Amino acid sequence: MARDGFASEHFGRVDPAADALFYEMPRLVKHIDEPACAALARHLRRVLPAGGAILDLMSSYASHLPDGVSFGSVIGLGMNATELAANPQLTAGVIHDLNRVPAIPFADRTFDACLITVSVQYLTRPVEVFADIARALAPGAPCIVSFSNRMFPTKAVAIWRALGDADHARLIARYFAAAGGFDAPSFDDLSPLPGRSDPLFAVSARRVATGDLRLC
User: Fold this and answer.
1) Cα gap 92→100, rounded to integer Å
2) Residue 76 sits in a domain of what CATH number?
């Protein structure tokens, strides 16, 4: 058992092949339905800083940012160049495999917010990734992790597949705590039409405003 409380088997996958192979074919689709997309955009309107530099981590074809809000930059870090190029809300796209290299290729305190949208279930080294998110965020900047019940089951990690929605939220909170560098996380149920639309939830935490980061 690692010192963060997780074991290697927690992050095993049905398909252990390189992610570059799985994501080689573009998927120009949204991974939650339209009511859930709209609910996420409303939430991001409330919590993202207008004019800020936004990091869309594990980005793809859609970032779900609210219409009518101007951001200084929106950098998408993802696995497929075609998807990133087709995303109209990105100002730039970067190809990067976080499961191979969990360090984010940006300087300290670069971003005013970070998004991980319906994709945290695919991280095999989440604590390392969350620790580096803290490094790359400005003090007080939020990291917003949204999730639904959709996934590619062969690529989702074992611990995610074994849990339900409430425990998924607790798991993400554990990632934040184990990574260090974040204030206590908050939880939001954003589900727009319970029973008639995709469920949607968000766990968010802000990078500590003062003091040194405790990185893994």
Assistant:
1) 21
2) 3.40.50.150
Enclosing domain of residue 176: 8-206
Contact indicator for 190, 202 with CB cutoff of 8 Å: yes
Q: Looking at the domain assignment, is residue 201 inside a domain?
A: yes
| pTM score over 0.70 | yes
How far CA 40 is from CA of 137, 155, 191, in Å, comes to: 21, 23, 9
Number of domains composing the chain: 1
Q: Which helix (H) or strand (E) holds 82?
A: helix 81-86
Distance of CA 66 to the CA centre of its chain: 17
pLDDT tens digits, 15-59: 888 888 877 777 756 778 999 999 999 999 999 999 999 999 999
